[in-house]
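Following up on my earlier thread - several people asked me to post the actual chain instead of describing it. Fair enough. Here it is, all 512 residues.
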Amino acid sequence: MADDNCKEKILSEDYYDIIMNYLVPREGEATDYYCLKYVEERLGILYIPSKGLPPLSLNEYNYRLIPKLYALVQAGEEQYYRSLNASNILAVQNPPLDLKGRDCLLCFMDTGIDYMDDAFRFSDGTTKILSIWDQTIQEGEAPEGYSYGTQYSSEDINRALESDSPYTIVPSRDENGHGTMMAKLAIAAAPNAKIVMVKLKEAKQNLKDFYIIREGALAYSETDMLLAAKYLDSFAIEYRRPIVICIGLGTNMGDHSGHSVLDMYLNQIAEKRSRAVVIAAGNEGNARHHYYGDFVNQSKFSIPDLYGTGQGCNYYNEVEIKVGEGENGFITELWVGKPNIVTVSVRSPGGELLPRVPILNGSSDAYHFIYENTDVQVEYRLIEEGIGDELIFIRFVNPSPGIWTIGVYRNDNAGYSTENNMVWGTWIYHMWLPITGFISEDTYFLESNPTVTITEPSTAESPMGVATYNDLNNSLYINSGRGYTMNRQIKPDFVAPGVCVIIGGKVCAKER
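Reply from S.P.:
Thanks for posting it. Predicted structure:
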């Protein structure tokens, strides 16, 4: 009965998914009012009815409690001999090492897998897939303790392969193809390994609305990914085999320092014995979705206190965002390293101004631009709980096309010395727009910066973040995400061939 209660709440659009990132009691996992799913002792997911609760916002809910949304990144194609050779995989597959993945598990959370593909079958015709947890199919039996979706075993899949109507036995499909291609790339490198796949369900509409995700975009919730990671990690214990968790999803939300909830949980898994976590670094290097600003070398000049806020300012930057036609809305996050504080103003393409918003921790200031018919909401978190840095979260609803200008003001009342100004993170700030696919290609920073464009969760410390290079000329792929992290950690960890990878000998037609 508890699982039935939870299933409805997990799937219903009338319930919020809230991350509980602290010690949670295990009494009352499910009631008629809410459901609580445990990821680990200090991490749980609360499913609670939205009726009677305030709308999602940083002012009403902690930033870390609202699940982030992730998009597909680095959709590879079937591995080609050249790329295997460039990675020195062929050398270790052959004697004397003969390393082909025997007794290892390749684990994925993605769009699913085409289990009918010959790449996932041994020479005797049986499947290489150990298990599929399809979060989108609710008619079958869910994995124990997870309440939703349907789990299919290797026995189920083998019966389907022998049947004239395989999808009546195992109806799980990969309509997108991204998960299948990710699995093909991995199984080409480790042909004797077995596969575990979690097909992620799409995020709830209430989360897409909060982040103003573009209509039709595929978006996956941090909560479903946390449970998927827990499920995949359990196979190392149950089967006593080393596992590799491969993740081809990413987001521009978060501090890009490895302190997001999913980053930290994947970090814990990667530090366990017999586990490896490999995460794509994304394709944001040339997307113009990152802005780098600083007040270190800027000339000092005075910005008068025009609005009686008591916040005169001697340093000021302007960040310009070009918004394309037909953009329904977007969010942008500004992060500044502790202990420094900045504030912002917003100016529309027509010159209408939201003046400098005063610093009030947890405050929210909403403004309607009359001539632009645009709503802008600015929310401050002076100390974001994960990393301790300041976060400014800005939502644009129905923005008019043109150049929107965000004024960034240094708070001179902090009183830090010139010497400290040269420390990384001091008077330096970063801004990110949503990942490619979540907004229009015509919305970007006019003065973007290609560094610190690796996507989360590849910023996590212990997992391996993987960027892309062109093995034909040994150059970095122009779209590949680049490091460092925001707190100056070295990421990505390595690069792999990812340009012009070919399917079945076909002519290379595009970069991936």
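Residues 296 and 423 are 10 Å apart (CA to CA). That should answer part of your original question.
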